[in-house]
Amino acid sequence: QVQLVESGGGLVQPGGSLRLSCAASGNIFSINDIRLTAWYRQAPGKQRRLVASITNDGSTNYAGSLKGRFTISRDNAKNTVYLQMNRLKPEDTAVYYCNENSVYWGQGTQVTVSS
Question: pLDDT tens digits, residue range 10-52?
Fold first, then answer.
């Protein structure tokens, strides 16, 4: 079992920044030596969608519209993945979830962008 704990969400004004953290613990595993951690988000009434992902060797992937504003990174020593979000917009408002190897989910952290 893997436990994922997200933190760093909150209320921010348009144009502001937030950094989300996802701390992993438990029986962390790799599939074919690849460990993939991803951030998803789900706005009210909408499907959960991929924001960005990162492998244990640092390869990254972003939803096309978010690249340039959002940056995913990881600290393998701390088993923590970060999502730096800049120039936030009201449409970025959502619950942000961390996912490990397409199997485990965190409880989510709320991000609200509003003036």
Answer: 999 999 999 999 999 887 776 666 789 999 999 999 999 999 9
User: d(Cα 72, Cα 54) in Å, to the nearest integer?
Assistant: 7
Q: How far apart are CA 113 and CA 18, in angstroms?
A: 10
Query: Mapping DSSP to helix (H, G, I), strand (E, B) and coil, where does residue 68 land?
Result: coil
**Separation of alpha carbons 42 and 96, rounded Å:** 7
Mean pLDDT score, 44-66: 93
Helix (H) or strand (E) holding 107: none
Task: State the CB neighbour count (10 A cutoff) for residue 1.
Answer: 6
Instruction: Check the CA dihedral 84-90-95-101 and report its sign.
Output: negative
